[in-house]
Specification:
The protein is an alpha+beta fold and 136 residues long. The chain contains four helices and five strands; from the N terminus they run H-E-H-E-E-H-H-E-E. The protein has a single domain, classed as Heat Shock Protein 90 (2-Layer Sandwich), CATH 3.30.565.10. Helices cover 30% and strands 25% of the residues.
C-alpha cells in the first residue's frame, strides 16, 4: 500500500470534517486522524506525517489538543475505552473502538503504535510498520 495515498486521503478527511482546522501534510491512518479531530477543540492544529526510520515505515498523527494523563495513556488502546474527562467530546458518537482497531491492524501487520502525550501537551500517535523484506 502506498503510504502517500493514505496520507492524502487522511488530509481530505480532516478537511471534510473540519474545513477551518489547520492541517500540515508531511507525509496517515484514518482512525488516528478521526481521533484527533473528534477529541480536540475546533481549529486545533493537526500534523500528519509519513516517512521511514531504519527498516520501518512511519505514519504519524500529532495534535495540539488537551493530551492524556498517564492512566489514560495506558488504556487508550483498550476496546470501548474513552478518555472523556480530559478530552473534549462535542458529539455522542464514538464507541471507543477506533484506537483499539488501529492497534489490532498495526499489530497484525507486524508493527506497533507509539504514543507520546501528557496533559496540555497534545497527542502524537506514531505507527511503525516493517518495510517489505524486513520482518520487524
Amino acid at each position: 500500500m502506498d503510504l502517500r495515498t493514505l496520507a492524502a486521503d487522511a488530509l481530505h478527511d480532516v478537511r471534510a470534517l473540519d474545513a477551518d482546522r489547520p492541517v500540515t501534510l508531511t507525509g496517515v491512518v484514518l482512525n488516528l486522524v478521526g481521533n484527533a479531530v473528534t477529541h480536540t477543540p475546533p481549529g486545533t492544529p493537526v500534523r500528519i506525517g509519513v516517512g521511514t526510520v531504519g527498516d520501518h515505515a512511519v505514519l504519524e498523527v500529532a495534535d495540539r489538543g488537551p493530551g492524556l494523563t498517564d492512566g489514560e495513556r495506558e488504556r487508550v488502546f483498550d476496546r470501548c475505552y474513552r478518555a472523556d474527562a480530559s478530552r473534549t467530546r462535542r458529539t455522542g458518537a464514538g464507541s471507543g473502538l477506533g484506537l483499539a482497531i488501529a492497534h489490532a491492524l498495526v499489530t497484525a501487520h507486524g508493527g506497533r503504535i507509539d504514543l507520546d502525550s501528557g496533559p496540555g501537551q497534545g497527542c502524537t500517535f506514531r505507527v511503525l510498520l516493517p518495510l517489505p523484506g524486513h520482518p520487524g
